[in-house]
Amino acid sequence: MIRLCLTLSIALLAGCATQQGGLAIKDMGSFHVGGREVTLSGLPVKEVLFTAGGVPAKLDPNGVYQVEQMYVQYFVPSQQRGKLPLLMWHGGGLTGVTYETKPDGGEGWVNFFIKQGWTVYNSDAVERGRSGWAMYPEITKTEPVFLTKENPFERFRIGAGANSYSKDVSKMKPLPGNQFPLEGYDNFTKQVVPRWTSTDAPIIAAYTALVDKVCPCIVLAHSQGGPFAYRVAQARPDKVKALVLVEPAGVGDAANVSALKNIPSVSIYGDYVETDSRWPTIRANNMKFQDAIRAAGGKADLINLPAMGIKGNSHMMMMDKNSGDIAAVIQKWLEGKGLVQ
Amino acid sequence: MIRLCLTLSIALLAGCATQQGGLAIKDMGSFHVGGREVTLSGLPVKEVLFTAGGVPAKLDPNGVYQVEQMYVQYFVPSQQRGKLPLLMWHGGGLTGVTYETKPDGGEGWVNFFIKQGWTVYNSDAVERGRSGWAMYPEITKTEPVFLTKENPFERFRIGAGANSYSKDVSKMKPLPGNQFPLEGYDNFTKQVVPRWTSTDAPIIAAYTALVDKVCPCIVLAHSQGGPFAYRVAQARPDKVKALVLVEPAGVGDAANVSALKNIPSVSIYGDYVETDSRWPTIRANNMKFQDAIRAAGGKADLINLPAMGIKGNSHMMMMDKNSGDIAAVIQKWLEGKGLVQ
C-alpha cells in the first residue's frame, strides 16, 4: 500500500508539472435521505414479465411504498479549503446534472468548487432524477409537467422571445451577446426531467433532512432551489451558515424573516432581466424580501452581473460560456465572508 | 499552481501514510447520449405556476420533446491500470446508484474499480434516474411498474420466501447466512425507481450509442443489464471486448451467437439459486446460451460463487457485506484475460 501511495503521489506530482486539473478526492459516494412510507390497498395483482425471454413474476401493487426520498452525491477533496460543506441545489425540471459537465462539454461547478477545496453535496430534488418518483394519482395527487425542447430556450433567457428556438443551431435567435453555448442546447434538453408543481412540501422536508445530516454548511441554490434554500435556512438557522442564490425563482416565508438575520446571503442575477416578461417581478420580489432581511438586522447582498461588467448571462449561467467567471464571483464572495481557510 | 500541486502531492503522501483510500482522479464528469425527438400536437395549453409565490407561465404542451436519452457519469483515474474503460450497467427498477455507496454506507464497486485504476462509466438506463422519462401514454405507450418495499426482499433472494420482509429489521426473515446487510435494506428501497417493461429497444439503442461514443471497452452488467449487454455486444462485436455478467436476467439474440465468439464473458451467480422459484430457469437459460457461444468458438466462463466458497450472496451482491470479495473475483478474471496493464 505504501508503495502504491508513493507511486500515486509521484504520479500526481508529475501530472501537476505538465498540466493543471485533476481532482484529489479523499472520499466520494452517495446516499438517499428523507422520505416516508405510504400504504396502498385494493389494487389488482398483475403478472409482469420484467425481461423479455425471462420468467414472469407476480406483482402485487398493494403494500408499502417508499416515496419522497432524495438522492445526494458527495465529494470530499483531499485538501479542504472551504470551512463548511457546500450543498448544491438545482432548479425546476432539472437534477444535480445542472452542476456537472456543461452541455458544451466544459467543466461544471461541481468540479470547479471541488478544485477550490470545497466538500460538495450535489442532490436531485424529490421526484427528480435518482430520487425516483411516486405513483400518481394514487400517491402524488397531481400530474407532472413536461417541457418541450423550445420551452426553456425562451423562458431561461437564451432566445430572443417567441419562436426564437430552432432545431438548426444556425437558425436559433439568441438574445444579443447571449453566453449560453447554442451548440450545447440540444444536450441541455436531454438533462430536463419531468417535474411536479405540487411537491414543495416533500422537497423542503427532504432538503431539511439533508441539512440535519450533513450541516453546518453553505447552500448554493438555483432558480426553484432558491425558495427552498430560504425556507430550509429559516427552519434550520443554526445549520445553514450562508446562502448563495443564483436567480432564485421565489423567496422565503415573509412571516419569519428574522430567522435569516444571522445568515449572510447573496442573490446573483444574469443579463436581460429588464426585457423579460417574468424576471423583473421575480427579482423585485426577492429585493423586497432582502429589504425585509436587512430590516431584521441581516445581511443580504445583491449582484447584478451586467452591472459588474459580466454580460450576456442566461438563467442557466452555470452552463454559460463564462460560467467560470461567475463561479469565481461566488468563490470571492465566500472568501469575503471568511468561509475559506 | 506548482506550489499547490506540491502541497497536494505532499498532502496525499501524508494521507497515504496514515490511511488507505482516496481517489486520485484525472477527470470526471457526465453527459447524456442517444435519444430521439417526438412531436405532440392537439393538446390544450396550460397555465402553470412553477414556484409558489412566483409568476405563472403559459405552458403549451404541443411541440417537440426530447426522449429516450441516457445519463452517464464517468471517472478517469490519474493512474490507469485497466487497458479499456469499464462500463457499469445496472438492473431493472434501479439506476447507476447500484454501484455507488452501498446501502449500509460501505464503499461500492464504482470506487473499488476506480481505485484499481479503471476508467468507469456509470449510467442510468433510459427512463430511469437522471435519464428522465417520457410522457405516457402519449409517447411511451404503456404504464410504469412500481415496486413495494417488500417486493425485492423476496425476489432478490434476500428473504426466505413469502412474508419474510418486515419493517422491523429484527423481525426480517433472511435466507440462512444471507450477506445482504439487513440494516441497509430500507436505504436500498430508496434507490428503487419506477421502470417500464416495454422499453428494451430504446434502452439498447442508448447503450449502443454509448458504446459507439466511448468504446472499445468492457461492459459489466447486472440483472436486466445482462441481456442488454449481450445484445449490444452482438451489435458492436468490434467495440465490446469483454462482458462481466452479474446474474444476467436474460440472454442475447440466439440467432446471432457467433457475433460473441471473440468476446470473452463471465457470468457470476450468488447463493440460493436452486431454492428460488425463478432463478434456476433464468440461470439454465444463460448456461444454454453460453453453450451456444462455446459451440460457435467463443469463451464463456461461469462462476457460481458458492462453489468457490463465497456463500450467502443475494441478487444484489454488489451491496452485500462481502461485495469486495466479489469485486476481487471480477478483477482477477479481468487480469486473467490480459485486460490490466
Explain the overall architecture.
The structure is a homodimer of 341-residue chains. With 341 residues, chain A is an alpha/beta fold. Chain A has one domain: Alpha/Beta hydrolase fold, catalytic domain (Rossmann fold). Chain A is built from 8 helices and 12 strands. Chain A has helices at 2-18, 109-115, 151-155, 185-191, 200-214, 225-235, 279-295, 323-336; strands at 23-33, 36-40, 46-48, 57-59, 63-67, 70-77, 86-89, 120-124, 217-222, 240-246, 265-269, 300-304. In chain A, the strands form 3 sheets. An 8-stranded mixed sheet of chain A has the order 1-6-8-7-9-10-11-12, with helices on both faces. A two-stranded antiparallel sheet of chain A has the order 2-5. In chain A, helix 5 (200-214) packs across helix 6. Chain A is globular and about 60 Å long. The two termini of chain A are 31 Å apart. The relative contact order of chain A is 0.13. Mean pLDDT of chain A is 93; it is low at 1-20. Strand 1 (23-33) of chain A pairs antiparallel with strand 1 (23-40) of chain B, so a sheet runs across the interface.
